[in-house]
Amino acid sequence: MATETLIWLIPLPPLLAFFLIVLVTNRSKALSHTIGVGAALLSWLGSMVVFFQALRVEHLGEHPFLSSINWLQTGDTWLRIGVQIDPLSAVTLFFVAWTIFMIFIYSVGYHNYGQPKGDHDRKGLPPHGATVTDVHGHSHTVLSVEPMYSRFFAFLGLFAFGMYTLVVSDNLLTLFVGWEIMGLCSYLLIGFWYGKPSARAAMIKAFMTTRVGDVFMLLGLAYLYSATGTLNYREIFYNPTVLNELAHSASGVLGLSAAGLISILLFIGAVGKSAQWPLHVWLPDAMEGPTPVSAMIHAATMVSAGVYMVVRIFPLLSAGAEGGHATTAMTVVAFIGAFTALFAATIAVAQNDVKRVLAYSTISQLGFMIAALGIGAYVAAAFHLVTHAFFKALLFLGSGSVIHGMEHGVLHTGNHKVDPQDMFNMGGLRKKMPITFWTFLIGGFALSGFPLVTAGFWSKDEILTDAWKHAPVVFVVLALAALLTAFYTMRQISLTFLGEPRTKEAEHAHETPWTMTLPLSILAFFSITFGWVGIPEYFPILGGIPKALGFTPNWFHEFVHGTLPLLPEGGAHGAMLALAEAANFDPIPLITSLVVALGGLALGYIVYKNIRPEQADPLVKPLGPLYPVLKNKYYFDELYDFLFVRPAYWVAETFTSKWMDRVVIDGILHFFAHLTGVIGNAFRDYFDKPIINELLGDRVADVVQKIGHWAREIQTGRVQQYMIVALVSIAAFGALFYYLLVLAR
Amino acid sequence: MMDFIISNLLTLILFTPLLAVLVLILLPGEQKSLLRWTAFVLSLIPLLLSLVLWFEFDPNQAGFQFQYKLVWYSALNSSYHVGVDGISLSMVLLTTLLTPLAILASFTIEDRVKVYMALFFLLELGMLGVFLSLDLLLFFVFWEFGLVPMYFLINQWGSEKGEREVWGGAKMPARVYASFKFMVYTMAGSLGLLLAIQMIGGVAGTFDILELYQRWTSLNQPLFGIQIGAVKSIAFWAFAIAFAIKVPVWPFHTWLPDAHTEAPTAGSMILAGVLLKLGAYGFLRLVLPLYPYESKFFAGALAFLAVMAIIFGALAAYGQDDFKRLVAYSSVNHMGFVVLGIAAAAFAADTLDANIALSGAVLQMFNHGLSAAGMFFLVGVIYERTHTRNLNEMGGLFPLIPVYGGILIFTSMASLGLPGLNGFVSEFLVVRGSWPIFTLYTALAMIGLFFTGAYILKGIKQVLHGPLNEHWIGHVSEINARELMVIVPLMVLILAIGVWPSWILGVINNAAAALLAGL
């Protein structure tokens, strides 16, 4: 099979799985998960084949795999859609395929496949456990299987289809299609347990917040399409003439160039999807969904799609940059990214829910990538995108495993008041759940950027190095964020796994089945090794190892940097791309990386290594009034509710439908109807009744009637009288005729 | 036989509904089941004939096909002239598709089944007549004709609950109010239309639309002592207001939520599915070609009203607690995109953008026909089970009716414009086409698009999600086979257009190009 054909086929198995499960097999849990996982396996296989095929192509950036077809008639022309694998999509495909496949497997264990049906479980609510009696006649409560097990795999399948579509697209339109399908799945999966009011609210919040970004993105697409006549990547981003033209035509808005405005419109889409400030509020609430969903959609793939899109449009974003100066659009991007990175990290410090910490950490890490793009380091952004996907998926799955273990403990003690997600209820889990602990530790260290061995170190270091070179302010902000990252990560690890169990439930926690620990182990493997493909050549000692072993030094950079090969060196874009060039060795960013990572980890360990039960968070005192502010996420939810949600509902319900439609518009109509009635009545009362009826109708009738009455007098019925009348008449008429005929002559 | 059918295809499509009425009249009134099935089977004939038409139609040939002309009022130079192009073809297909589905959806009607079914066929006749006429007088006759059956459907078979207060505090039953408002409002618009039509016919000496395209537009002498431009402007507004009421364009829209809400389920399906398209079709068939200059001149005003419809339609929908009213307002929102596309096309007729906007508008008409009919049907399904339309009284029904829930989410997403389903393609085309022409208005329309999400999600949230309202256990049953037969064809088409739009867009695109080339 031609590689191009294979690329077309990659997204399809999960879609087929979705339809099969929904239409046919939804009653059989075994069949449904077999189809689901089988489809993920097929797509994974296809992706791996394509990935390794892509590696074998020399200068893949200049000769990517391409294939397209006509899709939509537009006048005499067609809008074409198609697939493309260039270096960026190849590496994205690699991590997407791995994380998706791993999470499919993990979901089997997470949703308690093979466990009995729950006693009181109901569709739309999480399983509550089942009572079983063992051979000795003891009855105890165990985890029960998810009542909507099949549905979960169907939704995951549809989601995987959306993500694969996005990655293999060769144009922004099908990217948007995949983007929105993922949005739908995110909505459906956040609200998977739709019976919970909190989940129901979170699903709508997620959809609507990202929709803010999406409508701007749609405008960006319309603008770009109008301006260039195409949405194909290669026809726009690889075409210096088009880019130049866009960079030098004014948009008429805020003095931006067309390229700048389009980039910002598209970027707002990414702000929504990648949960950047100020559209970050949905992601923490999205943790209402089952943990595999958080891992896949809200850490590894969908939220990464925003960053992926900005990497894609990087040539447009940087179009017009002269002499290494960033464009306005880039400055905006850098600001949003850096601000979000620090802002979210501060919130993460004060969260107690094991998943919420990770949610804010995701926002913060995505901010790192966005900031990197804003300063022109698009390769570093892509690198962090990949490593982050691995270690953050790992951390989420690890947290799911922890929650699962805790739920086991909760069912054992029967005390349902204990929140299995609150880290202050945990402690000492390292002994109960060793695989989860070690893999979580690897993931946490990668997130913190633990030096040399973890992937996160290499990708974060690359961002910091580039920031140091080109935007010292961004560097300082990101370094501070990195310090906080290491701190809250170690806080999380210490509270969860170290010390002694703080509750009975934590004492009875239990390691999870292999379907959950195997994906953890594989992701842990990548969380370490994937960093090695991006060790800079100039790095002391380690930088030379790949060369000595016969590999390409800093392979990742070489490979992904080739994504944008066609742009002329030294031109407007070439200058900007020079920012992305590997920098020479500079000790300051490296030392900073080491200090913030190790310092943050050490600090976190010291503060949280031995928290006793019922003890308050040691941060409460030193932070003082700042602590509740952080804990309540700077009150953004309340602020938005006050500023946007309530007014919007008021405008919709009271202003538009009550006042404008019912009172004003209908009032005018009713007034006219009333006026018509008044005029009609007036005609009746003042014309019809007096003139027509009385004057003409009734009077004529009266006169006739009176004549009739009078004439009735002669109708007596007496023959004699008639004879007299006849004689009188004859005499009278005779006299008349005589007068007329004789005398009058 | 086949030759006869092909050569008289449009007349056959147009008058088979009348034949169906005759058949129904002969059947015994108390045999309800027989009446229903006869009506359903007979309604498939126009559909089959339209499918023949669809496949016999040559999309690459510009102009009208299958034309048939017969002298009707020779004294007035008016004739029975019918014909189709790509735009009317898609509308004819929509009409003949939705009618059988609406009849199938009406199987739960128990009251005066015979009259009810007969009225539906008369309604179909009226709508098809508008789409097929190429004679202005004929067009007007059918335009008015369609009102009558719909009036009775709302007035007699509409919802029995509810009251509306009018000026001065008087109250009347809601369905009486709604049917009256629908009828009088539309007729008020028709008044100007009739006068303008008579004037045009008198001045040009013909009512033939194709001839008028040449004769009326080329007039440049003063008429009745008034500048021709002024006369044309007045006539333009007479046409435009009549059609704007029907679409409906903001602020002429308030009859719609009342009529849609009070009509029986199948009536709402046809009302939203086809009747609203008559207005938009009027703009395309008559206003743009007869008044190219005035259309361009007033396009900005029209676009403004369209954007108001998009924004306030969505907002009003979001503000409803009545599920059916929510869906009704969504029509205002969606039809706004149709008008925006038409306005953009009128403003810059000679550009590619105009072509894209116009194709998008026509496709949006078709798509809205599918999704709105589907939504109204689904509202009807849930109403028949709960006997309430109040969203606050529902809630958490998903576990009881998972299949219905899935279908509701699917159809809602089509209405929301989710990529992969039909609504996205047409809305994207309209936005793409309008952006370079009316940039600000297109940007403002995004507010409406945003709130489209809000009201769609509100509907799903209130019906399906949340804690289960225990009251409904045992009362709400899953969607049945007959109901599936209604909704599944719509879903298939929604998906088919979303994934592979070119099968229908090809036909529409060429017709739009031809229309614009003629301006």
Provide structural commentary.
- Chain A has helices spanning 3-9, 12-25, 29-56, 87-110, 149-168, 172-190, 197-228, 233-237, 240-248, 258-273, 282-285, 291-300, 302-312, 314-317, 328-349, 354-374, 378-413, 429-432, 434-448, 455-470, 472-497, 504-507, 514-529, 545-549, 555-561, 572-580, 587-608, 620-623, 626-631, 636-712, 719-743, and strands spanning 65-74, 77-85, 130-133, 139-142.
- Chain A is mainly alpha-helical and 745 residues long.
- Chain A has a domain at 322-615.
- In chain A, strand 1 and strand 2 (77-85) form a beta hairpin.
- In chain A, helix 19 packs parallel to helix 23.
- Chain A is elongated, with a radius of gyration of 39 Å.
- Chain B has 519 residues and is mainly alpha-helical.
- Chain B has a domain at 291-519.
- Chain B has helices at residues 2-7, 9-26, 32-56, 86-105, 113-132, 136-145, 147-157, 174-204, 209-215, 228-246, 255-262, 265-290, 292-318, 323-347, 352-386, 402-416, 422-434, 439-463, 481-499, 502-517; strands at residues 65-73, 78-84, 163-165, 171-173.
- In chain B, the strands form two sheets. Chain B has a two-stranded antiparallel ribbon with strand order 1-2. Chain B has a two-stranded antiparallel sheet with strand order 3-4.
Task: List its salient traits.
heterodimer, A: 745 residues, mainly alpha, B: 519 residues, two-stranded antiparallel sheet, 20 helices
